[in-house]
């Protein structure tokens, strides 16, 4: 199996708010950077989207050293996801898992790879994490540039209403 190092980060300006994610994949001498953004989302959704995009970019099964500053993602994959699946994507309290749509995607993206998850402290000088933060913020800036403040406000209101109603906010924004 090829050995790949992945760094990822996601974030929002406001939470919820315009969001972005960034990924750096390293295989030997080769590096690939990916990023994306959406007009209305949460930090956690962007962290999940980064991990999904990174693992989905791999074209064959790999051994992955995955570095994230998100305890939510790391703990979700390594501690919680197996029980969520067993419980029909419900928590121990029998509540629906928040962001279950993205957790399902991440579960599928992890399959076939041998992934070791590593937590890194954000904004603490880790070069891979810092680069991903730059990519995520550039994606957010692009989202803000391509939408008026009024459009962003409207999309945020729709996102928040969908979340409160228990719907899938991702269905509104395609991420």
Architecture overview:
The chain is α/β, with parallel strands linked by helices. Helix content is about 45%, strand content about 25%. The chain is built from six helices and five strands; from the N terminus they run βββαβααβααα. The chain has helices at about 45-55, 70-85, 100-110, 125-145, 150-165, 170-175, and strands at about 1-10, 15-25, 30-40, 60-70, 115-120. Strands 3-2-1-4-5 form a five-stranded mixed sheet. Strand 2 (about 15-25) and strand 3 (about 30-40) form a beta hairpin. Helix 1 runs parallel beside helix 3 (about 100-110). The longest helix has 20 residues, at about 125-145. The radius of gyration is 16 Å and the shape is globular. Mean pLDDT is about 95; it is low at about 170-175.
CA gyration radius, whole angstroms: 16 Å
Oligomeric composition of the shown chains: single chain
Low-confidence stretches: 171-175
* Distance, first to last CA: 30 Å
Count every beta strand, where a strand is a DSSP E run of 2 or more residues. 5
